[in-house]
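#structure-requests
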Amino acid sequence: MHDIVRIASGQGFWGDWLEAPVRQVEGGEIDYLMMDYLAEVTMSIMQKQRSRDASLGYAKDFVPLMRRLLPSLVKKRIRVTANAGGVNPRACADAVLAEARDLGLAGKVKLGIVMGDDIIDRLDALLAAGHSLRNMETGAPLETVLDSVQSANAYLGAWPLVKGLQAGADILITGRVTDTGLTLAPMIHEFGWPADDWDRLAAGTVAGHIIECGAQCSGGNCLFNWERIPGMEDPGYPIIEAAPDGTFTVTKHEGTGGRVSVQSVTEQLLYEMGDPTNYITPDCIADFTTIAIKAGGKNRVRISGVRGGPVTDSLKVSISFSYGYKAVGTLVYAWPDAVKKARRADTIVRRRLEHLGLEFEEILTELVGVDATHGRLAGKPDPNIAEVQLRIGVRARDRASVDRFSREMAPLILNGPPSVTGFAGGRPKVEEIVAYWPALIKKTEIHPTVQILEA
């Protein structure tokens, strides 16, 4: 058993800073590199990719990143947990293995694949067996949108990853697992925590929650004294230093930018928290109100006292489905009377759409620079404002209405209010709307599997 296990966050979402994991591996001592790629909408994007090409459906930038890191990972014996597999973990693993072999690392790298979360091919059978997969927010049964479903994935917890680590995986690639499970699994594996040690499991869950969004807990997107946070051109991504008793310290590599403070960690704890006494995961229930947060030195925050409770009998299922079309158009109006011009243009567009007899579920107008962020709380706009961006978005079930709207912004350049510019990118692009459908399913219906491959 290790006295301390160091788990570093390398990615907080698909598209995060590519240099972060490199700096985590090369900048100091770590035992694990955790990389979180998946969000609800990400799964549907990956599903679309796989439907066009069976070899796709995962975070493609993970593969060249692994090529950069593999020599150092092997040399330093750093293990990786990543949900970069998306809806096609096997294809992702095969691509990484090919890079390992090309680097001359055959026989030196074991890849673990965690699967079983993807249930899109089982939906008909599950519904027929009485699993209604009702929307957790509306109560509607899944049958109402079944023909439009694009992806369906159950959130697995940490235990399938633990099995992969126990089987010797150096790099563990998963599909949809909880963000927190990517960090909790190494703790369970290293410290031998039992499945009913709720307090320690809750502590590991809180650790995972703190670093799941990367630099958001080490200075990025931080409200408190944001102007005084140093070196954000090279931010230090967070590292958990975990102890067997469930206590841990949040820190970062020395010499990196950003700041780990009680404030920055607290702000991240509030992210997507919901009921602070009942943070539900597949592995435990964590009570965030029991967390003790104390400064432990420069760029060091110590967490202790976390309490947890037993798991529920269900898993959350993230389902995406097609829900019509949208388009967003923008124009910029300049001084004088920039706000008046933008509002008049909005009125003109709306009346023209009405005269055309088009039907939309919603037409949303924002004046960027005036009230787009805070709405009515923004107060009365400055009459001398230099410029304002008019942004109009529409949503409809049928594409034809949205297509016609996309032709109504450009004419305003010559037949609307004066001093207009900024029609960048041309006609508004019509895009398919991907909607989110959260549901629950009994854990007994989900059967995770772990496979070990060698380079």
